[in-house]
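REVIEWER CHECKLIST
Item 1: Sequence provided? yes
Item 2: Single chain? yes
Item 3: Sequence as submitted:
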Amino acid sequence: MNTKIPKDLPGDLTARKPREAEIAKNSFTVEQRNLTSRTFSSPVILVAIFVILIALGTLLLTLPISQSSGNFGDPLTALFTATSAVTVTGLTLVDTGTHWTVFGQSIILFLIFIGGLGFMTLAAFLLAVLGRRVSIAQRLLIRESLSVDRMGGLQRLSIAIVMTAVLIQIFGFIALLGNLIFHYDTDTAVWLSLFHSISGFNNAGFVISSGHNSLIIGPGNKIALLIIGSLITLGSLSYWVVLDLATKRNFKKFSLITKIVLLMTVVLTTLATVSFLFSEYSNIATIGSLTLLDKIIVSVFEGISGRTAGFSTIDYADTLPATEVFMTLMMFIGGATASVAGGVKVTTMFILILSVVALIREKTYVSAFGREIDQDTIKRSYAIFFISLGFVFICIFLLALTNSSIQFNHIVFESFSAFGTVGLSSGATELLNGFGRVVLILAMFAGRIGPLIIGLKMVPNQDNSSYRPASETVTIG
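Item 4: Structure as written out by the authors:
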């Protein structure tokens, strides 16, 4: 007896195939998602993004439209400038205000804005404006660029960061314009205000006014120094600290990171200011001929800018060795994590100091402001510090090996300035040969993305292996 089975029964293969296909599709999607997540979470993607930005900037800066001479520019100079702008360093081989046209300066300004804000942060903002959802892979990249652990709410966070940064730079532009409009014609005042507002907030250190005694970066315009100094400080604090300051307004309610950043910023800025003032007080080549008030103002500005930004009212080629030594340390420390500032970051240095103090006091844990700091964070701090220091040492060695005619202290100063993405210069950068300039390019690049990658990837997993080698005591000290 033949029984005909209806095609629409649940057990029929025809009805089962779509469900099986859907299950297979979902399973493949999960595997593919995991593979994609692992692939796109790699620091190589962040490196590739920076390389692409630098390459595009180099190409545009090489064009005759970017050169004041009207001819094609030197590719190495364009590459050096583009790298310095994307990494918000500020080291230059040529005078930014005279060598580049307004178009060239606009390219530099665009690179500063993107480099300081972060490409992935801006990308998430644009996706939100266009009504597009952020994929898992994109979230991983955004999370790494912002130095956060969570995956949710990253798009809203990116919007808040972009809007806050743009708003601060607009306020800076208006404040500078209100000051410079009395010293320049309208068009020049607008362009100078826009350029230095963006360069100041992003701690880039690029200046398009001439000389150290200009009306923008010089003791002759105290209001401009105050505005740019405020922009530098806000940019070096990070979005998280600015948000805490704007919403909580009570030190006890601040997060642990905010407390550490504020404490270290005040302490380091004060130390840098006092050190600069006492070291250069009688130096006629720098601040020796200024009035006491001007000496203090310049010292405060150098204490703020010398750590992270690289704006300078004086020529560091004329400073005394004591100033170079202390500023070298300040540049290596840098600003806050997830800010536009470079260096190994103030939180890293704070944790290292606390861990050493805890070791001396024979404490079994490290704590600050009533909170214990976990061991993984301490390990990453040591990794960032020593790997960064090792990279700078290699940079110094290579420069000293290939540019023996330049004074060693200037080579050291320039190397720390490049790696710390600060941009202060003792005049050695322009004297370097081609190989030396390439070394500084690599130092600026590594200084911008190196600490981030080390912090996220150096100690990412716990070692769960049950095997341990036999232990043996090693004498130290």
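Item 5: Key structural point noted by reviewer: The mean pLDDT is 83.
Item 6: Recommendation: ____
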